[in-house]
Amino acid sequence: xxxxxxxxxxxxxxxxxxxxxxxxxxxxxxxxxxxxxxxxxxxxxxxxxxxxxxxxxxxxxxxxxxxxxxxxxxxxxxxxxxxxxxxxxxxxxxxxxxxxxxxxxxxxxxxxxxxxxxxxxxxxxxxxxxxxxxxxxxxxxxxxxxxxxxxxxxxxxxxxxxxxxxxxxxxxxxxxxxxxxxxxxxxxxxxxxxxxxxxxxxxxxxxxxxxxxxxxxxxxxxxxxxxxxxxxxxxxxxxxxxxxxxxxxxxxxxxxxxxxxxxxxxxxxxxxxxxxxxxxxxxxxxxxxxxxxxxxxxxxxxxxxxxxxxxxxxxxxxxxxxxxxxxxxxxxxxxxxxxxxxxxxxxxxxxxxxxxxxxxxxxxxxxxxxxxxxxxxxxxxxxxxxxxx
Amino acid sequence: xxxxxxxxxxxxxxxxxxxxxxxxxxxxxxxxxxxxxxxxxxxxxxxxxxxxxxxxxxxxxxxxxxxxxxxxxxxxxxxxxxxxxxxxxxxxxxxxxxxxxxxxxxxxxxxxxxxxxxxxxxxxxxxxxxxxxxxxxxxxxxxxxxxxxxxxxxxxxxxxxxxxxxxxxxxxxxxxxxxxxxxxxxxxxxxxxxxxxxxxxxxxxxxxxxxxxxxxxxxxxxxxxxxxxxxxxxxxxxxxxxxxxxxxxxxxxxxxxxxxxxxxxxxxxxxxxxxxxxxxxxxxxxxxxxxxxxxxxxxxxxxxxxxxxxxxxxxxxxxxxxxxxxxxxxxxxxxxxxxxxxxxxxxxxxxxxxxxxxxxxxxxxxxxxxxxxxxxxxxxxxxxxxxxx
Lengths: 389, 389
Hints:
The structure is a homodimer of 389-residue chains.
Chain A: H1 5-22, E1 26-29, H2 32-39, E2 51-55, E3 62-66, H3 70-76, E4 84-87, H4 99-109, E5 116-119, H5 128-137, E6 142-145, H6 149-153, H7 159-182, H8 189-202, E7 241-250, E8 253-263, H9 268-286, H10 294-308, E9 317-324, E10 327-334, E11 348-357, E12 360-370, E13 375-377, E14 386-388
Parallel strand pairs in A: 1-5, 3-4, 5-6, 8-14
Antiparallel strand pairs in A: 1-2, 2-3, 7-8, 9-10, 9-11, 11-12, 12-13
């Protein structure tokens, strides 16, 4: 158990309070991250239907997993065994049969089928098929979109969570240091990622690393115009830039970082663009403190870009914490003009400037924690364009 | 472009023929693997809404991605630029706004809003929210579940695809060899995965590796009862078994493999159970040939287990090929009693025996190709319980 039982109970209470406010009596939380947050469950089993089920008055959530994963739930969750609900293997890939048929049965058995039921309508893996099973199976329930109710409960981190993120950050630094060392002309991209992955898993002697919820992103050359490209077996080329976006992970907590490296002689346009980007990031970071909003941070960031006449349409940050594939964003706070989320102590976000200009781009980012009076960075790694001549 | 334009055109034709048979005029294919299969698109952008759109009479599919990924689509797909449809960044995490609002607009603009539209209802990432956007936005469309129409088109592999899987298999062998070398008493699990990942990315001098659609699974000790657990920073312990499940990946094609290693002195129960499992796998492999069904393979497998009085409820295989997180299964053929899918040449599947017994388990698997007269294994690696005394 990674957290005290008390911490898990506080999480449950926070979620139940929010459920009451929204008039939700039963919550089906399909989001992998939310399931981990509520129960401690941790396994690569999210490719088949699973969820946490929270009754507004329950002492514990239920953890709904397939039979093959029951052992994992007994090992990883803090729950009493009776609260691990196991569905049979004959629900796997035997459509139209579906695990949510069994979930519907469970809900009926417990006489919860007339309740107001919250569903995470846009959560990864909560498919249209799951939704139809619930709607058709529970015609007397009042179905509501619970939106990102549990995600919002995750926004402010506990000290224990911050501790895991700090460990993750040390691992991120190690991974980025390796990246800067191994990215050289003539080296295959895949080989560089092999070394980066090794660093990220080894972590430190104190904190081991884990698989990240996003693969090491490594767009290079023209690919720097497309931030989500991954490594191929092509070689790095002199004169080209490469963006590295990665995250160390510890106990599923992330502290992502993006940097850009240029192989060959200095390219003034890229250097200048990177410096303007860093100035904009710093302006945003300077506005990061309790009481300010995400919008305040975004306004400061874009004010610098406007000064330089740089157009950037995509948001420039999002909250972070627990992560499972395919994403390490929490889907709550956005660093974007108009997001009026108020920053509080221990809100953590990834402030990332993806700058794209036709067939090239540069990128830098920081994982940031809101402190009592301002903010601190999780990582300590120069943001400047790294030039390897 | 990884395949000839002709091969992409054949894929499209196969899908369009199947659409006609099912009375589907427009297909929204949200599945990441299907999108890659139909367009060549390849990036870690599936954490936000994206899809391939196939009109039953179109010359090319459309590739629907966010603005930040347009560059990636131009680089990776075989499509004309006009067939890359780009949605604005202001649709990202600004609910109730959603990229599918724009998709609905596109469909209306093209006057496709009264067509019979197929949706992949249970595809990973096709959320209930996407579905509601389509239903509410296109009230005159006839919505159908296209089920796994494109997945089924992927079942029989081309020679080029088989080539990529053979490269992936060589990488799998390298990864497993590393695993067997580095898993030792006192070694941290995460460090072992660091070495395994390095092997998997380096691949060979000819074929580089890529991120796998499932992380290296590494249940150990009691964890062997739970096949989807991943590495922690705990150390391997003398006397305990560890299951390794991994896949080499080349151009997104997978060839997975599972093996079990025991540290310390031989444990006769585990050795015997492993041998019985291998006998069952071999019986299934012997039934693998064109004309036989998945059921024939399953019957042969379970007949051996029945002989030994071993109970196993989960299926024992599934088709494989392209893979993106969270899964490398194709969601079509199942090696399971009652699955009457007929095997044909170049059907490929992962035959995996996950054997769980309360608080312990063993596992072995083979990636298999159906040949003209029988079958061949992609990998060449002993299946026996590997004992390191």
